[in-house]
Design goal:
single chain; 390 residues; alpha/beta; Aspartate Aminotransferase, domain 2; Aspartate Aminotransferase, domain 1; 2 domains; 7-stranded mixed beta sheet; 41% helix; globular; binds pyridoxal-5'-phosphate
Length: 390
């Protein structure tokens, strides 16, 4: 077997995103144990840094060892007890996954659906809450399968006065890319993933719990069905006791610490603005090329952009050429949207002006080869204009 050298890619799919060299270097630190006094200091730093990124002062904020889905599963198995009524809002693939996991955790799930490309309507949630009387309401912030950003406030407003409801919010594709306002919105259990807008390799799922979510955990009548993801035990490792629970993925925690330093250097507001500007420039470019965005105009995410594949264009061939010729990865649609849309991520370290301009130029060339009849050369100009007037 020869040494493996990964090809150089520009990751513009819905995750993973590119990692800053500082983050990759942090992972090449010497191995220390997960209970080493030096590592305990790193854990403290990571928890403090995550609190800042979540914009919360929650007493329970930590990275789960596992990908974003492990964060989702942690939320469901800890907040739901068998027989609990649960409302899951779904606007696509990841909302559906929330429902599946909520049911496996024993929840009696009522589904509130939005058409693909749209967000869930507050009135639909209101009806479900009044009829189903849930103990838990779950929804996705940025639905990566459709590029829709669910407005959080209107959903939270519906839940005012329902003090017994715990909210579970999937922020895998938005944390450190778009504002979530965990504390101001009073969100109870928020989880994310390391490889999206945090730009850390996959393998960690940051979570944060409100006081109310912690009380729900403390008042459980049944033990959590998952041993590994049981927060009542896990919190003693990430809490003051630092009691062994499992061997933390030490190198990934180093990487997360460095990514949190990068975010602090940049400033969270500035980082959000960067994501917004690059999203707007990309959309300006795509629309100038005559392409149609998939997600509704008022609910477009800044981090995942979805574009309708023009008629008579082979979506997979276009992606193949982008990768082979330019090292650019974008991704197609999944499930019902397979073959119908492209998903273009601008997350974390991948959300760059130079990526937007390079991508638009490359797409322009490849679409022309593939027989697309729209205007040529207009995308880069429109995007560049957006940057100069921003
Ligand atoms: C990526 C993603 C997940 C799943 O994360 P994995 O790291 O693939 O397990 C869940 N929810 C959303 C919204 C995502 O974008």
């Amino acid at each position: 077997m020869k040494e493996f050298n990964a090809p150089f890619r520009i990751l513009m799919g819905p995750g993973p995103s590119d990692c800053d060299p500082r983050v990759l270097r942090a992972m090449s630190n010497s191995m220390v144990s997960h209970l080493d006094p030096a590592f305990v200091g790193v854990m403290d730093d990571v928890q403090t840094g995550l609190e800042r990124v979540f914009e919360t002062d929650s007493p329970l904020t930590l990275p789960i060892s596992g990908t974003g889905t492990a964060g989702m599963e942690t939320a469901m198995v800890n907040m739901i007890e068998p027989g609990d009524n649960v409302v899951v809002c779904t606007a696509g693939f990841f909302g559906d996954r929330m429902q599946t996991i909520a049911e496996r955790a024993g929840g009696i799930v009522r589904r509130v659906e939005a058409p693909l490309g749209r967000a869930v309507e507050p009135d639909a949630l209101r009806t479900a809450v009044e009829e189903h009387r849930p103990r838990v309401v779950a929804f996705v912030h940025v639905e990566t399968s459709t590029g829709v950003s669910q407005p959080i406030e209107p959903l939270v407003d519906v839940l005012r006065g329902h003090d017994d409801v715990i909210t579970i919010v999937d922020c895998v594709a938005s944390l450190a890319g778009q504002p979530i306002d965990v504390r101001r919105n009073g969100l109870d259990f928020v989880y994310s993933g390391s490889q999206k807008c945090l730009s850390v390799p996959p393998g960690l799922a940051p979570i944060t719990l409100s006081d109310k979510a912690i009380r729900r955990l403390d008042q459980r009548r049944n033990p959590v069905r998952s041993w590994y993801l049981d927060l009542s035990r896990l919190r003693t490792y990430w809490g003051a006791e630092r009691r062994y629970h499992h061997t933390a993925p030490v190198s990934l925690v180093f990487a997360l610490r460095e990514a949190l330093r990068l975010i602090a250097d940049e400033g969270l507001r500035e980082r959000f603005e960067r994501h917004r500007t690059n999203h707007e420039a990309l959309v300006a470019g795509l629309e100038a090329m005559g392409l149609e965005m998939f997600a509704g105009k008022d609910v477009r995410a800044w981090t995942v952009n979805t574009v309708v594949v023009p008629e008579n264009v082979d979506e997979a061939r276009v992606r193949g050429k982008l990768l082979a010729r330019h090292g650019i990865e974008i991704v197609g649609g999944i499930e019902e949207l397979k073959g119908r849309i492209w998903r273009i991520g601008l997350m974390g370290s991948s959300s760059l002006e130079r990526n937007v301009l390079l991508f638009l130029g490359a797409l322009d060339e490849i679409l022309a080869e593939e027989g697309y009849q729209g205007p040529r050369g207009t995308g880069v100009t429109a995007a560049a204009d957006r940057y100069r007037t921003a």
